[in-house]
Design a protein that fits this description.
It is a single chain. The protein is mainly beta. Helices cover 4% and strands 62% of the residues. The chain is built from three helices and 16 strands.
């Protein structure tokens, strides 16, 4: 199947440069995407649109999806400094699954992103970045068992396009284990244990200044359909940064999402996260994230409203 997508987004940023004297701007974004993918199970068997994991499976030995995305951001303001922060963003992805219907499967997910980034508290000049993410996954998911899980390896390479940037290029490796147990037909209990290795990339003075770390995350969670209209995803655990020098973190982590399907074509979702992340201009930052999402279909159109609030502290 081939899926071409064209779209337009608009929005508003109250403080483009994260300054004490806010400079607001509107945003206009034009988007184009094309994807090529193998047929999903519903396309393979249109007469059985409600297939479950225990039904017959004819997906073959390899499933894949390849996509290319382009987006042009145009800030809407009278200031040339603000309008100069726009540009072309690029995204490209290729993911696949070998032996998707077998007891053991191998998956990969390669994703490239060119991020258009205006100067702000993290970066004092316009700092466009090229970020590459790769994930390799080895899955165990027997259809006749309630226990499943996967091993994974993730790699992120984060490179600033400017050669005279003041910020370090970074590389992040992470290995992890994610066991799962389906305790009820619509309830899954899971855990996630992972260890990362973060360091500067290259031999520049900025890369040499980047403090290496070994972020550890241990958490457990549950995802469940509480009623036919209400779903819950909850996880909590512990994380430690293990930075080689300077400040580090040793703290709880927390995620909760509650969704309500108020109609067959509409859904409301609210959530909260407490997270700790490696930073380009500090050792790390801590985020309290409050988010909401409203999805409403007006066939053949879809409307989504997604406000988020980040309360961030750098260390």
């Amino acid at each position: 199947t081939i899926h071409p997508v064209f779209g337009i987004e608009t929005g508003f940023v109250s403080n483009v440069f994260y300054n004490e004297n806010p400079e607001p701007a509107g945003i206009l974004r034009l988007m184009g995407q094309i994807s090529v993918a193998s047929l999903n199970r519903q396309r393979l068997d249109p007469s059985a649109p409600n297939l479950t994991d225990t039904d017959g499976d004819d997906r073959g030995d390899f499933q894949y999806k390849a996509s290319l995305r382009l987006a042009y951001d145009q800030p809407l303001a009278s200031s040339d400094t603000i309008t100069g922060t726009g540009g072309v963003g690029i995204g490209a992805g290729f993911k696949g699954m070998v032996n998707p219907s077998g007891r053991f499967s191998f998956g990969f997910d390669e994703n490239f992103l060119r991020m258009i980034r205006a100067s702000n508290f993290e970066t004092q000049t316009n700092e466009n970045r090229d970020i590459n993410n790769l994930q390799l996954t080895f899955l165990y998911h027997p259809p006749d068992r309630s226990m499943s899980g996967y091993l994974y390896y993730r790699n992120m390479i984060d490179i600033f396009e400017k050669t005279d940037t003041l910020y370090p290029n970074r590389i992040d490796h992470r290995i992890g284990l994610h066991p799962m147990w389906r305790v009820f037909p619509q309830t899954m209990v899971y855990a996630d244990f992972s260890l990362g290795f973060v360091d500067g990339l290259g031999s520049s003075p900025e890369a040499e200044m980047k403090k290496s770390s070994m972020p550890l995350i241990l958490k457990a969670g549950v995802t469940s359909l509480l009623t036919t209209k209400v779903a819950l995803n909850f996880a909590a655990g512990y994380t430690n940064g293990f930075y080689a020098n300077g400040p580090s973190f040793s703290a709880p982590v927390f995620d909760v999402d509650l969704s309500y399907r108020y109609s067959p074509l509409g859904k409301l979702q609210v959530g909260y996260s407490l997270a700790y992340m490696d930073s380009v201009n500090a050792n790390y930052y801590r985020d309290h994230i409050v988010r909401a999402q409203v999805q409403q279909l007006f066939v053949p159109f879809a409307l989504m409203i997604e406000p988020e609030l980040h309360l961030r502290q750098y260390n």
